[in-house]
What we know:
It contains 3 helices and 16 strands. By secondary structure, the protein is α+β, with helices and mostly antiparallel strands. 38% of the residues are buried.
Amino acid sequence: MADALLAHEGPLVAGVAVDRPNRFVLRVRFDDGAAPERVYLGDPGALTTVLEPGRVVLCEPVDDPDRATGYDAVAVRVGDVPVSVKPALANDLVERLIARDALPAFEGYDAVRREPALPDHGRTDLLLDAPGGGDAYVEVKSCTHVEDGVAKFPDSPTERGRRHLRSLADLAADGVESHLVFVVQRPDAAVVRPFREVDPAFADRLARVAERGVSVHAVATAFDPPRYRLADRSLPVEFV
């Protein structure tokens, strides 16, 4: 599918990563000899296969005097691949794909609303109207860690992610349709696996919820600045 799903309207500015003072801030040098500037990083994960000093960072200027940073980090070039570092985009991308009937698992589904309340407690990412009637709940997870074609999630321990899996399993146990979608925001993955070395509890729970009726899917997207497109509509998921 070559059509753009999303696109940045304004210009993107390229700089070079210097360091990462904290999970949400990068220091990026935009001009040789200039002092590095603080850039907001929306992905708090480890980003061990993405972020390194010297890599090119694509940034979006932000005109907001109340902010401490004047840019948002959009993507990091890993070799020839711009890897998106905006995990919040994963929900937008999935919603666009569902609206276009571009995902085999969701043909005929309609998005009803974002962040619906769950029947018991908490929220998930999307509520869909299933083709045969009834609700379908969807949790979306953004993934950027890829090693030798294997995408792995999470790249840092995630209690929140484990809690989401439990909520999906509770839905499935009550006969409510529930889905988990991994969005690999780079095109160089051939398979998705849980990152057992980082969060073994998440890996174990993922396998259990899949056995208990939660449908698990994965897609890959690509960022061809300034546009995002679908790279693979159905990546295999291995529960190892």
